[in-house]
Structures are given as C-alpha cells and as structure tokens.
C-alpha cells in the first residue's frame, strides 16, 4: 500500500539489516519502518545542506552517502547520530549516482557533467582521499557486481557502458560499445562473475 511522505524527487535505500528504508526527498531524508510501514521521523526529517539524489549505505549500516546532484558535494550521514558531513569532489559540477561495493572500502560516485566525465572514488576510511577515474561520456547510474570485483556505469552520452575494477590503483576503465540508445541505468545480476 502507498505511504504518503511529501511531493518531490524520491530515492530509496534499504538499510543492510532490512528493517528501514531511507527516502530522499529534496533536501530531506525520511525514515520508513518496513515492518509497520510508518514514517518514523515525518515531523523531524534529516536535513541535508542541499537537495540529494542517490543514497547508499556502507555494509555495516553505520554510514550512508548521498549524492547531491546540484553541486560538487557528497554528504555522509552518521546513521546513529544523524550527523551530516560534506565531502567535496574536485572539479565536479554535480553528482548523480553512487554505489558502495560489499567490501565497504570505497564509494563510487558518478559525475555526469564533470569535464572529463568522471567517476570519483572516495576512501571510506579517509573521506578526503578521492580519486577521479575518467569513464565514458555522461555516466549516469552506477552499480557494483555482487562478487565485489567491478563497478559499472551507464554512459548516457554514448552507446556504451564502462567497467572499473574495484581495486586500487584505479586504472583506466574498460568502455564497451553495446549499441544502446542513451543508456541511463545499469544493473548486474548475481550470476555475473567479473574480474577474471
């Protein structure tokens, strides 16, 4: 059944324990109890410095990262304290999508309008350690393989997707022309094994 929160652009992420859904609506984050389907902080949402778009949790569920879209920042949320900190991405103009592979060591953030088109890799132990990786034209949504070995971007500006090996140093990724028309999203099935 539908749950009414508020009008706005919504993105949802489930906590690793499966008990809550965090819903990003503009510059607010609402927390939904999945068992009861009640919004637990409807009158007191978590406030972001600017509008958020995508959200992802670290595997231990202690932190969440939010792509801001409207600027060059990624916001880090300490789940227990609800404290927000800001991570600045160098030479980015907006952030769009992000993913955290299952090892939890890095956050991969797509920046579709940064020249050149970049995915930024944030070290979760030291959020000031940021590595830009140039991928295909206009990378939008991004996802990680279930075996923890690779990250993929859908490159809207060309008929292609890019693959980044999830291992430092982050070398030049592989971009594959797949005869796609303005690919926007990307997903990986569990039976795909990468990095061989």
Walk me through what this model shows.
By secondary structure, the chain is mainly beta. It is built from no helices and 17 strands. It has strands at residues 10-14, 20-25, 28-33, 38-39, 46-47, 55-57, 63-67, 73-78, 83-88, 98-99, 106-111, 118-123, 130-134, 139-144, 150-155, 160-165, 174-177. Strands 1, 2, 3, 4 and 5 form a 5-stranded antiparallel sheet that branches. A 4-stranded antiparallel sheet has the order 6-7-8-9, with no helix packed on it. Strand 8 and strand 9 form a beta hairpin. 37% of the residues are buried.
What's a concise summary of this model?
The chain has 196 residues and is mainly beta.
Question: What are its keywords?
Answer:
single chain; 196 residues; mainly beta; 5-stranded antiparallel sheet; 4-stranded antiparallel sheet
SSE layout:
Layout: E1 10-14, E2 20-25, E3 28-33, E4 38-39, E5 46-47, E6 55-57, E7 63-67, E8 73-78, E9 83-88, E10 98-99, E11 106-111, E12 118-123, E13 130-134, E14 139-144, E15 150-155, E16 160-165, E17 174-177
Antiparallel strand pairs: 1-2, 2-3, 3-4, 3-5, 6-7, 7-8, 8-9, 10-11, 11-12, 12-13, 14-15, 15-16, 16-17
